[in-house]
Amino acid sequence: MVFGVAVYLDGESATFFILAAINTEKAREEIFMQLVVTEKPSVAQAIARVIGACERKDGYMEGNGYIVSWCIGHLVELAQPDAYSDTWKKWSYESLPIIPEEWQTEVKSDTAAQYKVLKGLMHDARVDSVVCATDVG
pTM for the complete prediction? Predict the structure, then answer.
């Protein structure tokens, strides 16, 4: 097994990611792939170029035993107060603090398509591991 740590500098932010590669000959025989998830498309393209994932697909790139995709910032957010209770639709200072018993999340409407792509890739039978290559902060 080979491990590597890389830093990708993009303007003001730095992305740290760890690559762990198993024997590529064996991986190709078994058709297992590593899914690399980045925070934005520009970082995904840079990483894909380096690791040889050059085939463009809808929402990701693939090749050389890797699938590289991206998040577009935050794909999921905390649910709004009215998702928990009708009484929290219109809150007042008296109802604060609003602390749900169990926190809920929602997929953001403007990132729903990419969320669906990533969810599908994470459940793809060819994917045997996921590399988190998002911003550290």
Answer: 0.71
Per-residue model confidence as pLDDT tens digits over 48-85? 999 999 999 999 999 999 999 999 988 999 999 889 98
Q: Is 76 helix (H, G, I), strand (E, B) or coil?
A: strand
Element (H, E) at 8: strand 2-10
- CA-CA distance, 69 to 47, in Å (whole number)? 10
Q: How many CB atoms lie within 10 A of CB 115?
A: 16
Contact 83, 56 (CB under 8 A): no
Residue 125, both tokens: 């039978």
DSSP per-residue string spanning 78-109: EPPGGGT-GGGSS--GGG-S---SS--EEE-G
Instruction: Round to whole Å and give the CA distance between 21 and 129.
Output: 10
Token pair for residue 9?
């500098």
Residue 76 contacts residue 108 (beta carbons within 8 Å): yes
